[in-house]
Task: structure prediction
Amino acid sequence: MLTLRSDQLSVGLLPGKGADLCSLVHRDTGVDVLWRTPWSSDDPGALPWTGDSQIDFLARYPGGWQQLVPNAGPPREQDGVRLGYHGEAAVVPWRVLESDNSQALLDVRLLTAPLHLTRRVTVDGAVLRLRDEIVNASLDPVQVRWVQHPGFGSPFIDGAARIDTGATVFVTDAEDPGANLPPDQVQTWPLAADLGDRPVDLRVVPGPDERRAVFGALTAFDAAWCTISSPTTGLRLRMEWDADVFPHAWFWQECHGSAGFPWFRRAYVVAVEPANVLPGEGAVGALQRGAGPMLAGGDLMVSEINVTLERLRDGS
Result:
């Protein structure tokens, strides 16, 4: 693990697995805002491989923050190869090109798509800066699905926490939207309507005893940002990104709500995940799910995300 520090933050990186962010700690309080799975301390090398990329990914999923490229979601066939669940970039080792106390530069060249990925991580005061680049190393265009995959957990997350965002629309998942929400619907953020036409305020984080699961996507951003405010820890996280690169954000709450593998009602996590693709397949209203943008041969995609973690002011 690489550890980067500023006077206010400490960040852990895992070059050997996807260049994951495995911790984001506010140093004064000692609070790590990123979620860890109940099995994150286990040795993933001791686990048997099943040949099912979804089972294998989830069995080795430590929590934290991944980068999903060139696929996000279930396995897909693309350009004559089967892309595994959540893509190759999140599971392979990356090279460390540079590092010092406050920044690191890493890269990887993928096998399942002709893509060269570079990630620069910088810690500057209360701000974590992520600059990610994807280059198409071939002469032909390539479809690139790209999702940033942070998960946030307790003690930062509890029933007092609140999520706000610049999105105006919430799209429910087509198969498993949770919270008694209708599947495959375009709704207004933040008050979605459940199957009984009762409002569900998605800004409110369920407490650990409420047993709620939600999955869908935020879109139609006035500005691409979200905040998670945590009165219990006295902290607020603000994440900002470029809506031209990530016009959507996957929205996930798994609050002891799902029985069966892999959660077995053990997970308490919420996530807002900047994305260039909506989850699932097919059309929902005027929106198209599943299809990522094409990156021309030799072309470049760049993402810059700033995450600010600091104390709440005036108790708000």
